[in-house]
Amino acid sequence: MKKTILLLVHSFIFVALYAQTFIIQGKVSGSKNEPLAGATITITGDASAVIKTNVDGIFSFKATPGKKYTLQITYVGYQVKTITDVMADSNSEPLAIHLTDGGNNLGNVTVKATSRTQAKAETINSAIQYQKNTAVVAQVLSAEAIKRTPDRNTGEVLKRIPGLSVIDGRYLVVRGLADRYNQAMLNGILLSSTEPDRKTFAFDIFPSNIIDNIIINKTFLPEYSGEWAGGLVQITTNDVPLKKFMEVQVGTGFNTQTIGHDFYHYKGGKLDFLGFDNGTRALPSDLPSKSTFNNLTPEQKTAYGKQFENIWTANSQNNALALISKNFRIAGGFNTAMGNRNKLGGVFALNYNLLPRNTFFENRIFSFSNNQASVNFDYTNNKYANDVLWGALGSLSLQLGNYNKLSWKNIFNVNTSNYSTERTGKDFESNSTTGDNIRASELAFKANTYFNTNLSGEHFISPLQIKLDWFGSFAILDQYIPDQRRVQYNQDDPLIPASPYSLLISASKTSQRSGSRYYGFLNDYIYTTGTNITKSVRWNNQLQNIKAGYFFQVKDRLFDSRPFAIYLPIDNPALRLEAPSVVFSPQNFGNGTDNKFAFNEIYDIRYRYLANSILNAGFLQIDNQLLQNKLRIIWGARVENFDQLLGSVRKTDPRYLHTEKLDVLPGLNVTYKLNNAVNLRFAGSQTVIRPEFRELSSFSFYDFDLGATITGNPNLPRTKVTNIDLRYELYPKAGEIFNLGVFYKYFQNPSELYFNNTGAGSSGTFNYISPDDAQSVGAEVEFRKRLDFITALKNFTIQGNLSYIYNRVPSLNRPMQGQSPYLLNIGLQYDVPALGLNTTLLYNQIGRRIYYVGGSDNPPVWEAPRPLLDMQITKKVLKNRAEIKLNISDMINREARFYHDLNNNKKYDAGTDALAIRKKYGTNVTLSFAYSILK
C-alpha cells in the first residue's frame, strides 16, 4: 500500500513538472446571461490569431508567459469589447466577459487589466453581473463566494443568501416560507423529497466543494418547474475545466461540545465509517416475509426474536482522535484537443467528511387548560452522532466543433448519521403527581444514498440562429434505517433515590416505545427527459427570443418498513430488573405465552406503500427587447399535467389514492433599465404546491426526538399561489450592489403540520392540515459595498441583506408554519491580495417562527431567534499553490429554544412560557490544507 501511495505521489510530481502550459481562457456572455456561441475573438500582441467561442461561449488559446495580448470581442448586435494588456501565468483565472446589446449604438468598449487581476475581479463580480442581467428576481452564489464561507455542505451555504434561512442545517426556508414551498434542481433536473416524513429536500447531502454555482429564482419563468412559491434552487456542480488541474485537500477539527466530553457509541459494523451497514444490523437471513411471519405461532415468532443482535447499549468512548472531525478531497480535470475542432474534457472529484457531534437537548410535551401548562413528558437528552458525508463526482464533455456539445454528468453521495441518544427525565403520563423517573435510549443508523446520471446535448444552428438542448436523467434516492432500537426503564419508586429501575414493557404486542426494533426501506427512482428550442430573431434592430419546450418526469417510490415489538405475555418483575445490556439475551425469550419475552411484528398494510407520479409539462416563452433595449419583457405560460397514484394499484385497497390535475401557470417578468446601473423589475405569476407522497400516506411513525407519532393526510389538497414582485436594483460599480424589493403572495389551501394531543398513541400525533387561505407581504434589501473610499479600510468589503415579511392565516389570526417575520445576514470581508490573505466574518439571524402548529387545545410551538456568527481565515502559501484555511462556525453557540408563548408577548419568557425544546449544538472549529498539484 505504501509503495502504491509513493508511486502516485511521484507520478503527480512528474506531471506537475512537465505539464506546464500557460493558457488564456474565458467565457463570453450576452446581456441576458446567455453564452454567445460563435463570438469572434481577435488576438493581437506577441502572436496574432482569430478564434471563435464554442456553444458555451468559451474560448482559449496558448500564450507566452510574461507577454501582453489584446483581445477584441465581437458579436452581431452587440457592442465591440476590447481588453488590453492581458497576460498569462500559472495562476491565471478564466476571464468572464459580458457584452452589451448594442441596439443602434455599436461602438467600442475598452478595458485595461492584466489577466490575473482582471480575472480575479471578474470571478468575484460575475455572479453580481449575472444577477443584474438575469430575467427574473434572483440571487446568485458563485463558487468563489462559497469558498469564502466555513460551510461544509450546500444546506449551510444557502443560509447566506438574501431571504433564505435553513432549518436543522438542511431544510430550506425562502422568504420565510417553510421548506415544502421550495423546489430543488440539480444540473437542470428536478429533485424529489429526501425525507420519508415530510415534503422537503435535505440540502446537506451535497458537499459545498463540488458546487460550481447556486441560483435561487424568486420569480417564476415558464421554462422552469411551476411547483414552488418561495424559491427555485438551481444547483450546478463543477463543470469541465478550461485547463488541466489537480488538487488535494485534507483537514481536521472539533466540536466544543464533543471534544473533552463523554461520547457514547454502540457496536456497529466495519463499514460504518463509510456510511454503509455491512450487514451487522440486517434482518436475519431466514426471516420470513410479513404475511408469512404474521401467520406463525407466538412460539415460532419468538424463536426469530432470538436471532437479532443483542446490542442495546452504547459505551463511553474517550479516544480524543476518534472525536475529531476528518475531511479529505481530491479533484482533477482535463481538457484536450481531438483534432482541429473537437475537444474532450472531464472533471472528477472524491470527498469525505466525518463529524462526531454531541447535541444536547431537552424536550417536553404539555397539556393545557385555561392557558396553563401541565407537563406530560420532561426529557433531557444527549444525541451522540457520527455524521458521514462523502461522495464522488464525474463529468465528461465532448465538444464537436464550435456549435455542438455533449455532456455526461454523474454524482454519487452518501449521507449517514450513526447515533445513540441517551435520555433521562420524567413521565407524568401514569403518575401525574410526582412523575416517573425514566432512563431511555435509542440506537439508530440512518443512511441516505443519492445517485444521479445525466446525459445532455447543446446544439447551435448558426444560419438559423436556433439553439436546441435536450437531456435525459436517471436518479436513485435510497434511505435505509436498519435495526433502530428503543428501550426505556422506569424507577420503581420515584420518591426513593435508591429505588431500582425496571424495564418498561407490557403485554402489548404493538408498542414501539420500549423494546422495539424498526427497519425502514425507502427507494425513489426518478426518470426525467426533456428538450428546449430557442429561436433568436432581430426585430426593430433588437434581439427577440422565442423558447418552447417539453418536460417529462416519472417518480416511482417503494416504501416498506418492518416494526417489531418485544413484549411480556405475563409480567415478570425480576426479569425486568436486568440491565439493558443483558435483558434481551436469547435465554430470556420464552415460548411466546409464558413469563419470558415474546416477539412480534406489527402487521398493518399502512406500514408499506408504493407511489407513482407522472408529470407532463410544456411551455411557451417569449423574450422581448423593446425601447432600444431598455425594456425587457419575458412572458408565457407553462402547462403541467400531474398524475399521482399512492398506496396501491388496487382501488379496493384502503391505501389507494389517485389524483390527476391540469394546471395552467402563467408568468410575466418585466425589466426596465433606467440606465446602465439601475434596473426596475416587476413580476407576476401563478404557481402550485402539490402534496408529497409521505404527506398523503396514512403511514404512522414514532419520532423518538419529538416523542410523538407523525402521520399523513390523504385528503390534503394542493396549494395554489399567486405571486407579485416589484424590485429596484442599483449596481454602482463592479462588485457592488444595492437592491430594494417588495412582494405579495396569496396562498389557497396552504398545508401545515400540527400537533394533535388526542391522536393515535399516548404521546400524541403530528398531522397535516390545510387552512382555507393565507397571505404574505414582504420587503427585501440587499447591499454589497467596498470600503476603498476610506484609505484605512481599502481592503474591506461589507455586504448584507434584510428581509421583512408580514404573513397571516386570516381565519386563525397567526402566521403560517415556518414563516419568519425577518431574516438578517451581514458579512465583512478583509482581503490583502499581495499577501494571499482572505478573512470573512458572517452573521445570520432569523425572526421567531412557528415550529409546529397547535390544535384547538394546544398553542403553537414557536422557535425563538438565534444568532449565528461564523469566521474564516484563508492564507495562500507555497507560491500560491497551497492554501491554509481556518473555519469557526457558530461562535456564539447560543442555545435554540422552542416554546409555547403563553403570555402572547412575541418573545420567550423563562418561568412564564412553556419551554418545549431546548438545544445546544456547540462551536465547530476546522483547519484544512489544500494543494494544487496541477494548476
List key phrases describing it:
935 residues; 22-stranded antiparallel β-barrel; 5-stranded mixed β-sheet; 8 helices; 49 strands; 7% helix; globular
Strand content: over 45%
Helix content: under 10%
Shape: globular
Mean pLDDT: 86
- State the separation between the terminal residues, measured CA to CA: 27 Å
Number of alpha- plus pi-helical segments: 8
* Structural class based on helices, strands and sheet pairing: mainly beta
Q: What kind of sheet is the major sheet?
A: 22 strands, antiparallel, barrel
Number of strands: 49
- Uncertain spans, ≥5 residues at pLDDT below 50? 4-20, 112-124
Radius of gyration: 30 Å
